[in-house]
Specification:
This is Chloramphenicol 3-O phosphotransferase. It holds the Pfam family CPT. The chain has 191 residues and is of the alpha/beta class. The protein has a single domain, classed as Rossmann fold, CATH 3.40.50.300. A five-stranded parallel β-sheet has the order 2-3-1-4-5, with helices on both faces. Helix 3 runs parallel beside helix 4. The longest helix has 24 residues.
Length: 191
């Protein structure tokens, strides 16, 4: 590596409920963006965990493992970006500690906070069609996931396609203010 200070990567942080279309938008962003981005979905980290029946955890143990997993994911995102990689992060900020931890570990990085919205009716339809999600999970997440009320870009997948959302995001990137939503939230919530 060169002795010059390396650039840090940009983080396009997609926040929305389960089944809101974040992963589909991320896939389209990788196709339309002008430079190479990595898609870092939290689902990929979850899939790495051992699933043997002998490792079944009681609810308290599982909660502890999931908290460590989420905290590790935040740090993996920060590490990739600090190494100069541009990222599309696909996540569900369904607990405030997740946002607070992200605000801390992603400090100093160019994070574009993107709200991915979808109507409760459409979320329910998608959960049922997918068959791999707990019915009602996405609707239950709606209240917390978008409660932070401070995005750089928003899109609504109720009627817009993932490609349309990706194109909207791409076009919006050139017109963002210097002060990002994560910077404002960090100031408001962490002082």
């Amino acid at each position: 590596m060169s002795s010059a200070t390396p650039r840090t990567g940009q983080v396009l942080f997609l926040n929305g409920t389960s089944s809101s279309g974040k992963s589909s938008i991320a896939e389209q962003l990788l196709l339309v963006l002008d430079r190479p981005f990595f898609h870092m979905p939290v689902d990929a980290i979850n899939a790495m965990r051992a699933r043997q029946r002998s490792l079944e955890l009681d609810p308290d143990e599982l909660a502890t493992v999931l908290t460590r997993t989420r905290a590790g994911f935040h740090r993996a995102v920060a590490g990739m970006a600090r190494a100069g990689n541009d990222l599309v992060v696909d996540y569900v900020l369904s607990e405030q500690w997740r946002l607070l931890d992200c605000l801390t570990v992603l400090s100093g990085l160019d994070v574009v906070f993107i709200g991915v919205r979808c109507s409760a009716q459409e979320l329910a339809r998608r959960e049922k069609a997918r068959g791999d999600r707990q019915l009602g999970q996405a609707a239950a997440q709606l209240g917390q996931v978008h409660s932070y009320g401070n995005y750089d870009i928003e899109c609504d997948t109720t009627t817009a396609s993932p490609r349309d959302c990706a194109l909207t995001i791409k076009q919006s990137l050139d017109h963002l203010p210097t002060s990002r939503a994560f910077d404002r939230l960090r100031s408001e919530l962490l002082g």
